[in-house]
Every structure is written in structure tokens, then in C-alpha cells.
User: What shape does this take?
Amino acid sequence: MSSAPLIDPFARAISYLRVSVTDRCDFRCTYCMTEHMSFLPKAELLSLEELDRLCSTFVRMGVEKLRITGGEPLVRKGILTFFEAMARHLASGALKELTLTTNGSQLRRFAKPLADLGVRRINVSLDTLDPAKFAQITRWGRLPQVLDGIAAAREAGLRVKINTVALKGFNEDELFSLIDWCAAEDHDMTFIEVMPMGDLGEEDRLDQYWPLRDLRTRLADRFTLTELAERTGGPARYVRLEESGQKIGFITPLTHNFCESCNRVRLTCTGELYMCLGQEDMADLRAPLRSSLDDAALETAIRAAIARKPKGHDFDYSRQGVKGQMTRHMSHTGG
Ligand code: SAM
Ligand code: SF4
Assistant: This one.
């Protein structure tokens, strides 16, 4: 059974779904969560069977790439069952890529089973190689455990991309050591500009904002940068460092407009579908999912949601204020 593809009002085909399978995490990164987060009651979460049904419906409707995220996806109980369920779409050819974004803490345990299920590439978030700074930024994380997890991923044959949030006054001084480490370990690397998500609380996101255009200028002091044409339908732009041959990505939702090629939507662990990371509008898919055992109501709700996908986001750090500030946390929508 297959359905007509999902095309939004701006003629963008929706082929990429990011799914947050939990809002919980074993870390408390300062730019992502407050120290004392209140999490959703378990009863509110979609069950793994419901997540399977929802994702399978999207795959039937033309989604070819699935990224599992959170919270920390690998702390969700029984998560391998869900990956197993999604692996059948890889086997059928309907799904081209099954991947995840993780903080790396559980990879020693999960890397091999994930690779066996057909996961080929993963993103691991890592902002510093200094154990004390790592403990400071993640509050609860420990660097050796994550480095060991990354090593396990490579042993299992997974390609690793390191995602680093560029944080002013925090990892500015590690720009080259991080790049050199990724080159030595053969990891791809992407820098992310910090986004105004969640309540600012004790951390002022504007103080942490290190524009990637500055970071690029610093890179250009040491390397010859060649702009690459590669686009993935998201906010990432890539350069090659000619001296090392490394490909470096930049995710700059605040300084570039990438919306015109946006091919993605995001599903939360409670079944809310966000059509844009930077807008509040969302569609509840849990109600149609639970209202009947056949997927007709669900498909209708998904089509109605895609018909509302906005043209673009409203983030803007310009001048003194943070405009377009989102009140929900990244761990809710899934980064
Ligand atoms: N726990 C997993 C992890 O850390 O990779 C997956 C979820 S996490 C929310 C996904 C990504 O969002 C991470 O790379 C994290 O660094 C990034 N992130 C979280 N809060 C952010 C913020 N305010 N601005 C930019 N990136 C953020
Ligand atoms: Fe957890 Fe990832 Fe958020 Fe850090 S960025 S607190 S690891 S969900």
C-alpha cells in the first residue's frame, strides 16, 4: 500500500522526518535544558508500537529519511525494538536512510545492534574535548564515556559526524583542536549556531551566541576553504578544508535563510507534528492515531498539517533582542 507523496503549499516535497522518541535525557546541557527539568508523564508518550505506526504511515507517504532523536533516544526503554521495526522499511527499499542523533553516552551498548539493523551513519553531539568543560556544559555527562561510545560506533562500522554547538567564551579556543581531532579520528564535523530555544533562565542565549561567520573567518586564517554545492534540504552548508581534505558543515539557521529548500517535519514523542522548527504551529497526530485502528484519519491529519507548513521561520538575533524566541525546548521538538 502506498499513498500520494507529501507536497507542501510551496511545492516542497516532504521526504525527511525527525522523530523525538523521548523528552528525557541523561545529560542536562545548559543550552538545552534547565537542571531541574520536569518531564512528561510516561502515559503521555506514544508507545513504541504507536511510533512505529506513525513513522510507517509517513514512510508510505514518501518519507525516505528518518532521524531518531530526543531527548536522548538511546535512553528510551526498548528503543531497539523500534529500530527493528523501522529496519523493515530499509529492507523493503521504501526508506533510504535510518539514522539518529545522540549524545553518545549509550553507544558502547547500542552501536553494534544499530549497525546490524542497517544504521550506517550517526550524529554525535560533542562540544568540547576537555573533561572538566564537558562536565560543566552537560552538567551530568562524562567525557570518557562518550569518547568510548564514539570508539564503539567506529568499531561497529558506523560513520560518525560530530555536531558541535559553537558557544562564545566556551569552545572558541578549541576550534582547531576539535577539527584536528576529527581529522585524526576520521569523523565528519558540523558546527551549530546556538538557537533561542526553551526559556533562557539562568543562561542568556545571547551571551552564548558565537556567530558561525566569525568562526569561518577564524578557520580561513589557517585553512583554504572551498565552498561545496552540497545541500541536504536543511540549514547545513559545507566547506572543504583544502589542507586536510575535511568537510566541515555549518548550521546557521539565524544568519542564513534555508527555508526555501526545507524538506522536513518534526514529530514529538507525544505525537505533535511541527511543520517548522521556528514556528509554534503544530498538528496533533495522537488523537487521529488513537481514534481508529486503520490509518485513514491519520493520513488525512498528516496531509492537513503539511498543507499548513509555513514558508519559513522567524528566528532573528539582530540588534539587542532575541526575536522569534521559541518557548519549547529543543529536547521536546528534537534537535
Ligand atoms: N540528545 C541528543 C544529542 O544531544 O545529540 C539528541 C537531541 S539534542 C536536542 C539534538 C541537538 O540539538 C544536539 O546536537 C544539541 O547540541 C542541539 N541543541 C540543543 N539545544 C540547542 C540550542 N539551544 N541551540 C542549538 N543547538 C541545540
Ligand atoms: Fe540531552 Fe541532547 Fe539536550 Fe544535551 S542536547 S540535554 S544531550 S537532549
The longest strand covers residues 159-166. The chain is about 30% helix and 20% strand. Confidence is low (pLDDT under 50) at residues 317-323.
